Amino acid sequence: MSDLLTPDAINTVVHAAFPRLPSSCVELGDGWVTASITPDASSLRPGGFISGPAQFGLADAALWFMVFNAIGRIELMSLTSELSIRYLRPAVGDVLWAKATLDSVGRRNVIGTVRLWVDDRESKPTAVAQGTYVLPSA
Fold first, then answer.
1. Reported confidence tier of residue 122, pLDDT bands at 50, 70, 90
2. Residue 111's closest CA among 72, 75, 66?
3. What is the C-alpha separation between 16 and 38, in angstroms, rounded?
């Protein structure tokens, strides 16, 4: 992890390049990143359930931020190679959180696992995901 890589640095660069991205990097540490979104009406299903696509999007973003942390720099051209998700329970709450942890980092691929939850109920995940990002050629 680079001392210059902070959630604010990630958010500044990412939101300048993708101003409509709803997720933000909240915290990072050695081999992990936490991200969040505050769902709006477009990401809610009847009954106040946070939609599957909103959860998937946050899982993808958390992994992307985790890639930056794993390689020590913001690399906007790191791309999702594969991502799978399992929905465990309905996501109902005001804030959706995701914690991505590093499983493996190589010369071209970064693999991570993500747990998602709502509000302060981290012990009750709403979904788990695993994915691979590919890094651009040097």
1. confident
2. 66
3. 19
